[in-house]
Amino acid sequence: MRSDMASQSLEPQARAELYRFLAAAYLRPLSAEALRYLTSKGVLQEFYTVFGERVRPALRCFFDAASEAPDAERARQEYMNLFAAPTGAYVMPFEDVYRGAAEPGGRGPLLGERAIAARRLYREAGGEMDGDCKELPTHIGVELGFMSFLCAREAEAQRGGEGANGKVHPCFYRGLQLRFLREHVGAWFPQLNRAIQKQASSGLYRGLAQLTEVVLERDAAWLMMSEAQTGAAAAAAMH
Question: What's the confidence (pLDDT) of residue 3?
């Protein structure tokens, strides 16, 4: 199953689970259970098998940090410093901040046009924010959660769920995934990653951010390749 392109060998349900893991890591501190899983024997090799050798540096940083800091309290405190408490290390994990600024280096307003556009896509896909989620629609965890939702819907359509009656084809959700990566989360996450690399006090969240950027980049590349192949096949069928 090894591949040089992230997610090339992953089915939609596996991609949904991957995005769900990443979303959860930004929405709440990594739990003691999660840290134990990440440091258990064989888990790192499983990730290498899925993502390929080119993601080794990012994964190595993340897993090494998890191994060195199995104390969930330390992970919780770093999470709070980076993503929850507006103090010196706070990175403001919202798309609006990075993409809504009137001038380079500025900060955009929360709940502005980026939030409106994100909510529009959520509704277009038939989704809505979980009532238990207190974050804004452009929070990185919410946007990664939406990618998980889209992948899960694609998997359901493939199984003959929503798509069985011909109303929704799996390609509809795949197209939304690529669109959301291009127009939203993939377009601004590199800026957040740079902020995390600068502000994080350990390798745990630096590694998580590097891993996230690699996944987003390579998933977009795979989706674009898949879209091109589908278009080529459709064109060939017309001749």
Answer: 40
Q: Which run of H or E residues covers position 76?
A: helix 72-79
pLDDT of residue 1: 32
Calpha distance 70→89 (Å, rounded): 22
Identify the pLDDT of residue 135. 87
In tens, the pLDDT along 66-76 reads 777 557 888 89
- Residue 117 confidence (pLDDT): 92
- Comparison of pLDDT for 59 and 182, the residue scoring more: 182
The whole-angstrom distance between residue 24's C-alpha and the CA centroid of its chain comes to: 10
DSSP letters spanning 185-205: IHHHHHHHHHHHHHH-SSHHH
How many Å apart are CA 3 and CA 180, to the nearest integer?
24
Q: 159 with 178: CB under 8 angstroms? A: no
What domains does the chain contain, in order, with CATH numbers?
12-219 (1.10.3480.10)
Q: Within 10 A of 223 (CB to CB), how many other CB atoms are there? A: 18
Euclidean distance between CA atoms 64 and 157, whole angstroms: 38
Closest CA to 223 of 190, 184, 180: 180
